[in-house]
Amino acid sequence: MPASPTIHRTVDDLRAAVSAWRREGLRVGMVPTMGALHSGHMELVRAARERADRIIVTIFVNPTQFAPTEDFGAYPRTEASDVAKLAELGVEAVFAPNANEMYPAGYATTVSLAGPAIGLETDFRPHFFSGVATVVSKLLIAGFPDVAMFGEKDYQQLMVVRQMVRDLRLPTEIIGLPTIREADGLALSSRNAYLSPEERQTATTISRAMRQAAELVRAGGSVEAALAEGRAALTEAGFRVDYLVLRNAETLAELANPAIEPRRMLAAAWLGKTRLIDNIAV
User: Fold this and answer.
1) Which of 238, 234, 236, 193 has the alpha carbon at shortest distance from 211?
2) One GO MF term, please (predicted)?
3) Scanning 43, 97, 155, 251, which has the fewest C-beta atoms within 10 Å of its C-beta?
């Protein structure tokens, strides 16, 4: 039986463990998660192992990134099975604090952002990136890892975290890994568990519509026409589209010259009660 990771519930306990590793001259990697771990998370852990001697996986459903109308209460919490999965990969530590540890009584400090945090997700979830940046900064400061791993599925989030780490001069390298997908193209997400069997079949439309729109753009077609066709395909399949856009892949700014800029297509759409996001390079 593989050894189970040590579970740390407080910042002080985590820092004590990291300090001991540091005294041994070991490199530390971190994989921040909200739990409900799937194979995409496992790939992040494996990638962290290639870059570090000791791995911390954080499991914390962060209340500050959920609006009152969102799914904080329903978000899947599966700590026991998550820890068992991490044991199989030899993870040394899990940081699983409660909300009072991360946001104690009287807590009054948050992180606010501009740049890549403006638009897209914040047009629909204005609270979101302040909550993400605040909790990620706290996690990084709690463990001060050498590297931290994030998936590209949450592409805007990845750009926001990189900007924050640069701006605050945090001593952690942020690594983004390609989106892990099901065989039919659907990006892995803990929220996929919300989909009914019929919705799960329909959900593949989001990646297919994006690929088709990207092919039109790569072939020299009109960007707006390609995006309009993609939005129409999603609407016809039963999605309610928040956005399907093409942006600068490095800044997320609107494209000034699509022919020469690095490009990323990003989408967010509702299928029933489930909001799906995805993105691809173009």
Assistant:
1) 234
2) pantoate-beta-alanine ligase activity
3) 251
Chosen domain end from 149, 177, 205:
177
Q: Which residues are annotated as a binding site for ATP?
A: 34-41, 151-154, 180, 188-191
Would you please indicate which residues are annotated as catalytic (active-site) residues? 41
Please state the residue numbers annotated as binding site for beta-alanine.
Answer: 65
As a whole number of angstroms, the distance between CA 134 and CA 203 comes to 31
In this structure, is residue 1 part of a structural domain? no
* Residue 32 within any structural domain of the chain: yes
pTM exceeds 0.90 for this model: yes
Report the C-alpha gap between 261 and 238 in whole angstroms: 32
Burial class, 226, CB count within 10 angstroms (exposed 0-12 / middle 13-18 / buried 19+): buried
d(C-alpha 217, C-alpha 219), whole Å: 5
> Could you report the per-residue pLDDT of 124-183, keeping only the tens digit for each?
999 999 999 999 999 999 999 999 999 999 999 999 999 999 999 999 999 999 999 999
- Domain containing residue 239: CATH number: 3.30.1300.10
State the binding site for (R)-pantoate. 65, 157
